[in-house]
């Protein structure tokens, strides 16, 4: 699957297929100098600039009719520092390549999201995260950043150097400049044991605090129209490595999670009345299993069924109440929801516009298969999330604007002031940023 969807006659499309643009020109710089020159040239021509990753955002965060910068040539590891335990990597490097390269060097990130087709800069700039009791998003593992700012100069930042830029630029939404390199904290590679197990919805909610406290990484999927969930606990392990068997792995991950699931989505779209029955079957199809492997093989999995997604971070203390309201809404709505709801957590971090900024958070993600009418479901879900001061994922569908964000992010003004300083002429502006950050 080519995740950077580029269509005919210069049209760029995202993975979900819900965003498409025709930029005035596309640039594929082979160096930071070339990228800086492209930004300066755009300014001379009066064009806006956006860098695009693998197109995995459902929002139009990377869309532009100006200069579209593609980072495919800005890839690879620049430097591994074993004294500081960091790795510096070019911004266009896919997470998958980073994970494999690190494992070869006997290293690993501490935590990661559940897919790895994104570029490191795209994933971090939008706040991509997995689940963790102590370990946060991918951006929370950043130790240093290099970015090209609006005047074409190269700025580096860390806790010591330009700390006010560092506080914001780790999740910069593409609004502060074009990220060219990222330095991540790494650690010696370790093993994770995953325990996947079905559990009743009511029991997960009743025991949520315990399940969260007892596991380094806890998450679960609830199947709407059922009282069933599938839970996953990932914890560090002394080994030995016991990966999922090839045949059973194919059955669980490809056949059930992607193949049968795809067929279920097709049937559900054609005959929505069948969805509750299909949900009962799907939610029971996945059995318990335990396996031990390298972190990236446990944290991430392939996603071949295309979908639309909305995800909100609510205060962790509010998660069970929010989920009860979501379930009650689905039960009384008459809607037919064929995609599971995903629930994860993150500890508070210190990044200005991180969805976990300053508060322990729980993430609730709602999905619908691509091509189905998702608006009614997402609107109803969003009403529940915002009542709990939810913060939407920057790369997923939401309807919030700057006025709302000023209320739910105490440091929102800090970010916009920094943007005024770094990009006074709004070289990196687009419609999405105008909405979420204000003009």
Topology:
Blueprint: E1 12-13, E2 20-21, E3 25-27, H1 32-44, E4 49-51, E5 67-69, E6 77-81, E7 86-90, H2 95-104, E8 107-108, H3 120-125, E9 142-148, E10 154-158, H4 163-169, E11 178-185, E12 187-188, E13 191-200, H5 201-206, H6 208-214, E14 217-222, E15 228-237, H7 246-270, H8 275-285, E16 289-293, H9 295-299, E17 307-315, H10 319-333, E18 341-346, E19 361-369, H11 375-387, E20 391-392, H12 402-408, H13 412-422, H14 431-437
Helix pairs in contact: 7-8, 10-11
Account of the 3D structure:
Helix content is 33%, strand content 24%. The chain is an alpha+beta fold and 439 residues long. A hairpin with a 6-residue loop joins strand 1 and strand 2. Helix 7 runs antiparallel to helix 8 and helix 10 runs antiparallel to helix 11. It is globular, with a radius of gyration of 21 Å. The relative contact order is 0.14.
């Amino acid at each position: 699957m080519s995740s950077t969807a580029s269509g005919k006659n210069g049209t760029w499309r995202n993975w979900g297929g819900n965003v498409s643009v025709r930029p005035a020109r596309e640039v594929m710089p082979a160096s930071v100098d070339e990228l800086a020159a492209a930004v300066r040239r755009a300014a001379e021509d009066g064009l806006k600039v956006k860098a695009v990753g693998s197109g995995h955002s459902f929002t139009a965060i990377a869309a532009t009719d100006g200069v579209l910068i593609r980072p495919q040539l800005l890839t690879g590891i620049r430097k591994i520092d074993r004294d500081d335990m960091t790795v510096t990597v070019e911004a266009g490097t896919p997470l998958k390549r980073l994970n494999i390269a690190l494992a070869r060097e006997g290293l690993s990130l501490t935590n990661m999201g559940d897919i790895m087709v994104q570029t490191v800069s795209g994933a971090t700039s939008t706040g991509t995260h997995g689940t963790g009791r102590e370990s946060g998003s991918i951006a929370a593992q950043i130790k240093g950043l290099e970015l090209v700012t609006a005047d074409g100069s190269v700025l580096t930042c860390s806790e010591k150097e330009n700390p006010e830029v560092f506080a914001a630029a780790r999740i910069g939404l593409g609004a502060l400049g074009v990220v060219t390199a990222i330095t991540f904290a790494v650690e010696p590679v370790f093993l994770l044991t995953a325990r996947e197990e079905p559990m009743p919805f009511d029991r997960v909610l009743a025991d949520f605090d315990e399940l969260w406290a007892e596991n380094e990484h806890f998450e679960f999927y609830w199947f709407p129209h059922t009282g069933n969930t599938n839970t996953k606990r990932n914890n560090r392990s002394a080994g030995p490595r016991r990966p999922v068997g090839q045949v059973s792995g194919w059955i669980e991950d490809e056949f059930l999670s992607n193949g049968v699931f795809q067929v279920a989505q097709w049937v559900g779209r054609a005959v929505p009345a069948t969805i509750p029955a299909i949900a009962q079957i799907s939610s029971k199809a996945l059995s318990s299993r335990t396996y031990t492997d390298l972190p990236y093989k446990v944290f991430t999995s392939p996603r071949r069924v295309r979908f639309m997604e909305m995800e909100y971070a609510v205060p962790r203390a509010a998660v069970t109440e929010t989920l009860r309201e979501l379930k009650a809404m689905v039960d009384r709505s008459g809607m037919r929801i064929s995609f599971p709801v995903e629930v994860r957590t993150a500890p508070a971090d210190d990044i200005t516009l991180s969805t976990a900024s300053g508060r322990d958070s729980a993430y609730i993600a709602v999905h619908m298969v691509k091509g189905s009418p998702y608006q009614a479901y997402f609107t109803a879900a969003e009403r529940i999330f915002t009542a709990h001061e939810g913060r939407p994922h920057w790369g997923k569908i939401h309807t919030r604007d700057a006025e709302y964000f000023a209320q739910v992010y105490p440091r929102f003004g800090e970010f916009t002031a920094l943007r005024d300083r770094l990009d006074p002429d709004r070289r990196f502006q687009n419609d999405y940023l105008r909405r979420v950050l204000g003009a």
